[in-house]
Amino acid sequence: MKRRILLLAAMLFLGAYQYASGQDLKLNDREYFEQQGVNVLVYNNLFTGGFNDEKNAGIELIHHGVRTAQGGAVRLSNTPEQWDLVPDILNRKVDRAAKTVEATLQYKEYNFDSRVVVTAKGKGVEIAVYLDKPVPKELEGSAGFNLEFLPSQYWAKNYLVDGRPNLFPRYVVGNTVARPNTQKPKQYKGYVTSDDRGTGKFIDPLPLETGRTFLFAPDSPERMVRITSPDADLMLFDGRMLAQNGWFVVRSLLPAGKTGKVLTWTVEPNAIKGWVRDPNIGFSQVGYLPAQPKVSIIELDKKDKPVKSAAIFKVGDDGKATKVFTGKINTWGDYFKYHYVKFDFSPVKTPGIYYIQYGDTKTNNFLIGEQVYSKITDATSDIWIPIHMNHMFVNEAYRVWHGEPFKEGYRQAPPNTDHFDLHAQGPTTDTKYKALDLIPGLNVGGFFDAGDFDIETGSNISVVQNFVKTWESFKPQRDQTFIDQKQRYVDLHRPDGIPDVLQFIEHGTLNLVAQAEIIGHMAQTLSNAVLDNYHHLGDAASLTDGLPYNPKLGPYEVAKDGRSSGVKDDLWAFTSREPELDLRAATMFAAASRALKGYNDDLSARALTQSKRLLKEATALLANQKQDTSGRGNAANMATNLQLYIATNEKQYLDRFQELLWPSLERNVSGNLLTALDAIPHLEASYKEKLRPYVVKYKEYIGGLEKDNPYGVPIGLTNWAGSGDVMSFGTTVCFASKYFPEIIEGQHAFKATNYLFGAHPYHNYSLVATVGATRPKAVFYGNNRADFSFIPGNVAPGILFRKPDHFENYDDWPFLWGQNEGTIGGNTAYLIFGSAFKNLVK
C-alpha cells in the first residue's frame, strides 16, 4: 500500500511538473517565446522612424491570438508619438541555451546605447536593461523602458496597482503638465508634432497610477498580465492624451548615474489552460451566385483537431434553420502560424439565406442569389470617392463631410526640404517660382490621398487611369452625385444628369493638367508644410485658416483687411522633377483626353497636349540619366505609348509600345500582362496570338498561388497589407478570361472576391465597407478614424503580416494605416476590379 501511495504521489508530481513545464514559455524555432495562447516577440519587428507609426515593433505580446502589447524598448518620453525618436537596433542575439534574446539599442542623436535582454522565466519573461555608460545628463528623467498596451483590448477592464483597484478609461481622461520646449527630447529629423501656439511649452502627460506591481485585467483571463519590478516604480500613462492613436503605456525611468543592470521587469501574461483559438471560418460576406464555386477556407489553431465534415443550414420563411448539405473537410496544410482546411459546398445552389456550421462554430448568415454582386461598388462610387474630392464643399443630406479646403492655394516648397511624408524638394525648385512663392491655379480638382488631405500626384494619376479604364471598358451610367465645378459643390445621392465616373475623370484631370501647365511638369505632391497639419483629424477645410500666409504679420495675427494671416499653415507644392512621374502623367493624360472628348473638349485637348509634351521631355531626360535597371521607367513608357497610340492612331507610338512590351513580359508577366491585354481591342489579331504564350505563363502563376497559400491569391507580406495585390490579380483574371477563356478560367476571379469579402486570415469580416456585406469591418482608417467608424465604400489594405508568422487586422482599433487605411488609389482600383468582375459574372 505504501509503495502504491508513493507511486501515485510520484505520478501526481510528474503530472504537475509536466503541466508546469507545458505552461512555461519556450524559445521556438522562429526566435520568439511561446506557449499555447502566449507569444512574446523580441525585436522580430524593428523600429523604422518617421512614416511608420511605430505601433508594430519592439517587444510585442500576442495574447490568445491578438497582438495586445508592443513597443517594448528604451524610449525618451512618457507616451511616444509617431515622429518621436526610436532606437536603432544595432544587433540582435539569440542564445537558446540561456533562453535569451538580446538587442543593443542606440540613439545616435544622444550617443546613448543600451542593451535589453529578455529571458524566459517560467510562465513569463524577465526584461532587463543594461548600460555600459550612465544615462546622458540631458536624458536624465526622460529615458525609460516602455511597454504599450492596446486600449481597445483593455478599456472598461479593471487593473490593480499594488492591490489598489482601478478601471481603464474608455475615453482619455487624465492630467497633464506644460513643460518648456527646452526639456522636450528631439523628434525625428527635427520635426515638431504639435503647435504650441507661441507658448514655448509642450504637453507632458502625468501617470494615472504608480506602483511596483501591476495586474491588468484580472476580470478577463484572456488579457490578464502581471508586471512587477523589484528596483523601480512602474507608471501607467494614457498615450491618447497626446494623440488619438496612443496606447496605454507602462513605464519605468532609468536611474541616473548607474551602469550595469539598471532595470528589471518581470512580465507574466496569463495563459488559459487548454486554450485553443476558435476556428476562423472564411467565406464571402457578400454571398454567392447559385452556380459559382463555393469553398469555405477554415483557419485552425495547430492544437485544434479538424472535424471530418461541416454543414450548410438554410433559414426558411418561418425563421427556422434546416440542414440542407453536409460535406467533407479537406486538409490544405499549414501556412505560417495556423492550419487550414477547406469545405466545398458548391452543390448548394438554391437562392436563400444560409449559414455554415463547423463543429460548435456557427457563422453569421449569408445569401445565395443571382444579384449578390450587383451593388458591390455602389457605396465606393456614390459615397467614398466623392467625399474625397478636394477643393469642393461635400454635402450628404443633413451632414457636411467637409467644406471647401485650401482656398489660400499652394506655395513653392523651399529647396533642400525633407518632408515627413517621404517627399523631398531638391537643391532647386525646378520651376520659375522662388521658395514660398504662391503658385496660382493649383487649388482645383484632385482627390485626397487617404486619411490625410494631400494630393499625391502619383496616386491621382493612377486614380484617373482607373476611372478611364472603368469608363471605356464598361460605360457605367450610374448617376447619384451632383457635382458643380463652378460652385465647387458636391451633393451625394442627388443625380445631375451626368455619369459620375465621367465627372470624376474631369475632377482628377483638372488638378493634374493645372500642375503640368503651371509648374511645367508634375509635382511630387501638394502637401502640408507643417506636421501639426499633416496629422489633422476632422474637416479638411479647418486644416488651414483659408488665408494666405503674410510674413509681415506676427504669428497667428490676421491682417486688418482680413485677407492674410501670420499663420504658417499654407500647403506646399514639392516640385523636384521626376521624369518617370511625367511619363505616368503622359499615359493618364492620353487616356483622359479620349474619355473627356465630347464632354469637356477644352480639357480633353489640354490633356492631349500635355501628354505629348511630357512624353517627349521625360524620354529625353531619362536618356541622359543612368540606366534604369528597375524596369519602372520602361513600364511607364510602355503604357504611355499605348495610350497615345489609342488616342492618336500614330504608328510611332505603337512601334515603341511593342518594342518595350515583350521584354517587360519576359521579366514580369504577372505585373505587365494587364497592360498587354489593354492593347488587344486596338491591334491586329496577330498581336493577340503573340501574346498567347504569356497568358499560358500567367496560368502557371495562378497555379503557383494555389500551392503558396490556401486562398490562392497573392498575399503581401510587407508593412502595407495586400488587398491591392488581390484586386490587381482579380482584374487581370477578368480581362485575361475575356480574351483567352480557353486558357484562363473566369472562376479564378471568385478567389479575389472571396478574399476581399471574408475568406482570409485572422477574421472573416469583409474588408470592404460595402453595400451587401452581412458583416463588413466596423472601423477603418480615414479622416474619420478618431470616431471608430467607417466611410461607406472604403476598402482596407487588409490582413497585415507581422514577422515572423502573425497575420492581423484590427476591427476595434482603426489607427494602423497599413491594415485599415483606405486610399484613393486602392478604392478606385476596387472600382475597376468590381466593374470587371460584375461584367464577368453576367
From TrEMBL:
One GO term under biological process is: cellulose catabolic process
Annotated Cellulase Ig-like domain ranges read 278-361
Keywords, A to Z, come to: Carbohydrate metabolism, Cellulose degradation, Glycosidase, Hydrolase, Polysaccharide degradation, Signal
What EC identifiers does the entry list? 3.2.1.4
InterPro entries, per database record: 6-hairpin_glycosidase_sf, 6hp_glycosidase-like_sf, Cellulase_Ig-like, Glyco_hydro_9, Glyco_hydro_9_Asp/Glu_AS, Ig-like_fold, Ig_E-set
Q: Which reaction does it catalyse?
A: Endohydrolysis of (1->4)-beta-D-glucosidic linkages in cellulose, lichenin and cereal beta-D-glucans
| Residue span, Glycoside hydrolase family domain | 444-830
Q: Where is the active site?
A: 812, 821
**Signal sequence extent:** 1-22
Q: Which SUPFAM superfamilies has this protein been placed in?
A: E set domains, Six-hairpin glycosidases
Gene3D superfamilies from the entry?
A: 1.50.10.10, Immunoglobulins
* Annotated GO MF terms: cellulase activity
Q: Does the keyword Hydrolase apply?
A: yes
Could you say which protein family the record assigns here? Belongs to the glycosyl hydrolase 9 (cellulase E) family.
Q: What is this protein called?
A: Endoglucanase
Which organism is this entry from? Rufibacter hautae
